[in-house]
Amino acid sequence: MIHGFVPYSRASVMFDVVAIALVLFLPALGYSIWQVKQGRYLLHKRLQLVLGIVLLITVVLFEIDVQASKLVVEGGWRTLTVDSPYHGTPIDRLLRIHLVFATATALLWILTIVQALMNFPRDPVPIPSYSRNHKLLGWCSTIGMLITCITGWTFYYMAFVATKI
Known about the structure:
By secondary structure, the chain is mainly alpha-helical. 72% of the residues lie in helices and 0% in strands.
């Protein structure tokens, strides 16, 4: 397990990468939403596809790292939380909450993208019969991503930054 690069953190490099990616992700998502509000539908589509691909690659690499750490160090990433005042049950509970939101949001976002690709033309323009549904799915995905980020950052702090006094 390779130690991360965020100062004052005990996290592995992939936990740090994911934490930083989430910090960068929300402004990029906001920019994408702003683009669609400006009528730049093709740019919005491209940004959403890039964000989706980057997030997928990051999650796959992260999961590989988590599974590999279990093979290298008994207890895996949990060994990095021993100095946290939240070690054990509080961290595990928050992780479960985070994973529920992260999984539901990922599935919702995939649905939103797939349906958009199926319902909008290659050069996207609003379609009265589908745009309202897409907007609803998009906002639900965005809110889910915001909650995923908040629970992820909270988990990261509690697990890898907070220190017993």
